[in-house]
Amino acid sequence: MAATLKITQVRSAIGCPKDQKDTVRALGIKRMHHTVEKPDNPAVRGMITKVRHLVKVEGL
What we know:
The chain is α+β, with helices and mostly antiparallel strands and 60 residues long. 30% of the residues lie in helices and 25% in strands.
């Protein structure tokens, strides 16, 4: 079974640059405290790195 990461938004993207808001959206997160599961791959890790100040990640 492939490893997955649980990603939860813990801070608001209001006031953040548009590219960061778009990255949160691309991860599938729709609102605060919403958790999504994504595969652990370099593309997802890169998106997490970009918005690491807005999200909490479990399963690293």
